[in-house]
Design a protein that fits this description.
The complex is a heterodimer of chains A (352) and B (397). With 352 residues, chain A is mainly alpha-helical. Helices cover 77% and strands 1% of the residues of chain A. Chain A starts with a helix and ends with a helix.
């Protein structure tokens, strides 16, 4: 009994993580059992997106600094994991100029994904310390400029990334289970960091940088820790993504993908993990449903014209609507908590 | 909060049920008397300028097929879903089309965007065909033994102009400017140079340019400083900067012929060059909108105008039309819509298309398309068809 009680107690205390994890697993099991192959694919990609979004959220949500760079770390993770795990024969054919040492490398997929994340984290650790010293607006612009640097390196470094050409032949590995486990891991990581003392310090610096510094928090170091962790998470997400899509080129890690990622973060609410999860959910569902509606309208030929682009239009309207009415995102920086529900209920009762 | 949670869960349920429903209702159609051809062509986003005309071509082809009795006595239905210039969406679209009973998939015209559709088609055991992906990666080696591209590869595109310049015109020396921004331009130059040097031509210098740079003075200075001027200049780039490059060279007195690939086949280039600079420019492309290049073009144009209310405006319509017609012919020859048989028919036959005669090599050698390219010359900013060319030798990819 005591174990059950203790785990219940734990669940109540960490109700945010539990409330996010349980539905994800439930839906995952349902989709795996009853879903069509399309639905399995959609849910797998949802989990992969969630990994990326949480990676962004750990830095952006806690520090309050808008980060354009994370899609670049996704790319680093994807390339590192792809290069490490692709069979030498495929690399020799597909990447004619690759360094011979890289061609000869081959390790199993799972360690490759982990190493991909570590490579991204190391790069972040090397380059980001000075950036964390910058004030907010300047920092954002610097991060954006760094994304451009990443992109140029990826498109020009023929010997490693195959330049602007497609890097293909990455072994397929990411199933729904893999992606789901990855997403759960990210939630736990993000939650752990948020609740850790370092996370608290970063959040304090977000709310008032000077007050935080005055209480003895080393703002730069706190932000730096958040940044490196979030780069690690983005890199891991990139590896999982690479083994899902199996071929990609540098354009997959640039502006348009960055905006999709940021739209998920912003719509849900960058300030919290729940916001990131809900943002990803809403954007994924809206995109898929709209796509189905669009295709049904077009293939039924009920209109005299075709409505391609409906999805993008409605998504844009949704984004603008969120920005007008809930500029903090749908759930506005708060976490889902059991106590919050209870509190609301009591209030209702007392009103009656 | 509670109301929000309720709304959210409702949306989730709808989202879960909706794709399930559509896939169920669709699979019945496959057993009926229609043959479904699915297109995952991108109607929005960066890939749309290539794919959108291709879809119109495909729609026209299906109309023509149905008027003439369909395929194997069955009516043909074209089911189009937008790939949205996103590889994941393209893959999902293809998966869904397969679930709905598609007998073949028409994939977007690019390896990055088309690849996911072809991979889904391959794993479902049906033929996937891209109307216009010219990367040599678009092959059975990378995608599987049921996958094809209707376009000549960049290898052919580079070789045709190299042979034209060296054999037909006797030009021995070339100055190459390569736009290093995307794969297409980089690999095109590589194949052009490989074939040109093999023939015995001399590449004086391989220069680079990056799309968006907006300034060719460095390249111009290097050309001017050469001891021996090249016979012609090969520029592998694309609009909008291509026009700027040619104009700058011409304005500065570099009057050698300019040669390039199918990215030149762009009305905005002709406009930007105008009658003053739009001369002595040669390129090879996939087809040409005239009776001279394609007997039967006027019928095609008339049918197109009747359906869409305007004249054919882009050469990319033709590959879309051809893709459907190739699949239809292959199915007729195979006598079935079953993937392996159709792929075999595609490997073993020659197809007479609007975009030139086409033969594929077998799956072991990658389904390499052996295809004629249309050589075109710009005279007073008007493209003039010079003829179909099949290169004697194609460089290895």
């Amino acid at each position: 009994m005591s174990i059950i009680q203790r785990s219940l107690e734990w669940a109540r205390k960490h109700s945010t993580a539990v409330q996010l994890i349980v539905p994800l697993i439930l839906v995952g099991v349902l989709v795996q059992m009853f879903g069509s192959s399309l639905l399995v694919n959609v849910y797998t990609f949802f989990c992969v997106s969630l990994m990326m979004v949480l990676g962004v959220q750990v830095f952006m949500g806690n520090s309050g600094i808008l980060s354009f760079l994370h899609v670049g770390f996704v790319g680093v993770g994807a390339y590192a994991s792809g290069i490490l795990s692709t069979p030498p024969a495929v690399k020799a054919m597909g990447v004619p100029n690759m360094f011979q040492t890289l061609v000869d490398l081959q390790i199993p997929v799972l360690p490759a994904i982990l190493l991909g994340g570590i490579v991204a984290a190391i790069i972040a650790a090397v380059i980001s310390y000075p950036m964390m010293r910058l004030s907010d607006a300047v920092g954002v612009i610097t991060l954006f400029a760094t994304l451009i640097v990443f992109h140029v390196i990826m498109t020009q470094w023929d010997n490693v990334t195959n330049g602007p050409r497609t890097f293909f032949g990455v072994p397929e590995y990411t199933t729904l289970t893999v992606a789901l486990v990855g997403a759960l891991l990210m939630i736990v990581l993000a939650y752990w960091f948020r609740e850790s003392s370092m996370g608290l310090r970063v959040r304090a610096s977000r709310d008032d940088r000077h007050a935080a510094a005055a209480t003895g928090i080393n703002v730069v170091r706190a932000r730096y820790a958040a940044f490196v962790l979030s780069a690690l998470m983005a890199g891991l997400a990139g590896g999982v993504w690479a083994h899902f899509i199996t071929s990609f080129s540098p354009k997959a890690f640039y502006m348009s993908e960055m905006f999709v990622l940021l739209s998920m973060v912003v719509i849900g609410g960058a300030g919290s993990i729940s916001g990131a999860v809900i943002g990803t959910t809403v954007v994924t569902i809206a995109r898929e449903v709209l796509r189905q509606v669009e295709a049904s309208i077009n293939n039924a030929h009920v209109l005299s014209f075709e409505v391609f682009g409906l999805t993008e239009l409605v998504m844009a309207i949704l984004m603008v609507a969120v920005l007008i009415w809930r500029p903090q995102g749908i759930i506005g920086g708060q976490e889902l908590k059991l106590s919050r529900f209870k509190f609301k209920k009591k209030e209702e009762v007392s009103n009656v | 909060m509670k109301r929000f949670a309720a709304v959210l869960s409702l949306v989730m349920v709808v989202a879960l049920v909706l794709p399930g429903c559509s896939s169920n209702s669709g699979s019945d159609a496959a057993e009926g008397d229609t043959i479904i051809i699915g297109t995952a062509l991108c109607q929005t986003g960066i890939q749309a300028p290539l794919d959108e005309p291709a879809l119109r071509g495909a729609q026209l082809a299906v109309d023509v097929l149905n008027e003439n009795g369909g395929i194997l006595g069955k009516q043909v239905e074209l089911r189009a879903m937008d790939g949205k210039s996103d590889p994941v969406t393209v893959g999902n679209v293809a998966k869904q089309l397969v679930d709905e009973g598609a007998a073949a998939i028409i994939a977007p015209s690019d390896f990055d965007f088309g690849g996911p559709a072809s991979r889904e088609a391959q794993s479902a055991g049906i033929v996937g065909l891209s109307p216009c992906a010219s990367s040599p990666l678009y092959s059975s080696t990378a995608l599987g033994d049921l996958q094809f591209t209707l376009s000549m590869w960049n290898t052919t595109m580079g070789a045709v102009t190299a042979e034209y310049a060296y054999n037909e015109r006797g030009w021995d020396t070339v100055y190459v400017i390569t736009d290093d921004f995307i794969d297409y331009t980089k690999s095109l130059s590589r194949y052009f140079i490989a074939r040109f040097e093999e023939l015995g031509g001399e590449v004086i210098f391989e220069d680079t340019y990056t799309q968006g740079q907006g300034d060719v003075s460095a390249q111009l200075a290097r050309i001017k400083a050469l001891d021996e001027q090249p016979d012609f200049i090969y520029i592998s780039s694309y609009q909008p900067d291509l026009a700027l490059m040619i104009r700058t060279l011409r304005e500065s007195g570099v009057n050698q012929p300019v040669v390039g690939g199918d990215a030149y086949d762009d009305p905005s280039l002709f406009e930007a060059l105008g009658t003053q600079y739009g001369n002595d420019v040669y390129y090879d492309t996939h087809g040409f909108l005239s009776d001279e290049a394609n007997p039967g073009y006027s019928d095609f144009a008339a049918a197109y105008e009747a359906k869409f209310g305007s004249e054919p405006d882009a050469v990319w319509i033709m590959p879309g039309y051809d893709a459907v017609m190739t699949i239809a012919q292959a199915m007729e020859i195979a006598g079935t819509t079953e993937g392996a048989a159709v792929a075999k028919a595609m490997e073993e036959n020659t197809f007479e298309l609007f975009t030139g005669a086409l033969e594929w090599s077998d799956a072991a050698s990658g389904h390499e398309p052996n295809k004629a390219a249309a050589m075109v010359e710009l005279i007073d900013a008007q493209p003039q068809f010079m003829g179909w060319v099949i290169p004697e030798k194609i460089p290895a990819p």
